[in-house]
Write a structure and sequence with these properties.
Layout lengths: L8 H12 L10 H21 L1 H10 L3 H6 L2 H4 L14 H13 L6 H15 L7 H6 L1 E2 L5 E7 L1 H14 L2 H7 L4 E11 L2 E8 H7 L14 H9 L4 E2 L3
Helix pairs in contact: 2-3, 3-7, 3-10, 9-10
């Protein structure tokens, strides 16, 4: 049974708009409703910060009413229901939030913040890399199904520092005073059985492996040892020219 066919869908949609609408309900709020709404919003925020830790805090820090805007949007309310259920799948919380940011905020975000958001999107939804010309010439490439999320900032380090600062002060203040550290950085996502394996690459290691996914990158002078170690760790595999 789909959400459209469910006899209580109109009633539940009305309740959800009361829980998550950007404007307060036009009546005296019931204490139980206030608690329930806060609990649900906290669950949504926990889901988003778990999947997109830097992105979520950056957005909500720059726009304190941003979460309410998302929860009042058609991106949130238009999620499709699970088969046989009235309620959407939990993973759609993250995907619709990303789509909402693309449509409403990302183009206006500060360039450094937009780069961090793009990186976190690429980590989750990157496209498997095709062998570059440099990779084919060298005879090494990324394994099948692997992709790289590239950034000029160490995003995992920044996400941890921002989370710690957000725990001590209001998010707008934390975002204003916590900035990312610039360095060569990328994350490789590799297939591992039915799951995924993620490897962070920093500094010289990142620069040495970058030509494997970036057509515009050149091999640095001291890359052979890094490539040999990457091959032993199965981060790269041989390929025919």
């Amino acid at each position: 049974m789909t959400a459209e066919a469910h006899p209580y869908v109109a009633q539940v949609n009305e309740l959800w708009h009361e829980f998550y609408g950007p404007e307060p309900v036009a009546r005296a709020d019931d204490p139980g409703m206030i608690v329930d709404r806060a609990t649900r919003k906290a669950w949504v925020l926990k889901t988003l910060t778990g999947a997109l830790p830097a992105t979520t805090r950056l957005y909500c820090g720059h726009l304190p009413s941003g979460l309410d805007a998302y929860l009042g949007s058609e991106h949130w309310h238009g999620r499709r229901a699970r088969k046989g259920s009235l309620f959407p799948d939990a993973t759609s919380t993250v995907t619709t939030f990303a789509a909402f940011l693309e449509e409403t905020w990302l183009s206006a975000a500060e360039p450094w913040a937009a780069r961090i958001v793009r990186y976190e999107f690429d980590v989750l939804w990157g496209t498997p890399a095709k062998p570059t010309a440099a990779a084919l010439e060298r005879g090494l490439r990324l394994p099948d199904g692997a992709w790289a999320a590239d950034c000029r900032y160490d995003v995992p380090d920044y996400a941890v520092r921002l989370r710690e600062t957000c725990a001590d002060c209001p998010w707008p203040v934390a975002v204003q005073h916590t900035r990312p550290r610039g360095r060569p950085f990328a994350t490789l996502t590799l297939r591992a059985g039915k799951g995924l394996r993620r490897i962070h690459l920093r500094d010289a290691t990142c620069e040495a492996l970058r030509p494997l996914w970036d057509e515009e990158a050149d091999w640095p002078g001291s890359h052979e040892a890094v490539l040999a170690q990457a091959e032993r760790r199965e981060l790269v595999v041989p390929c025919a020219p």
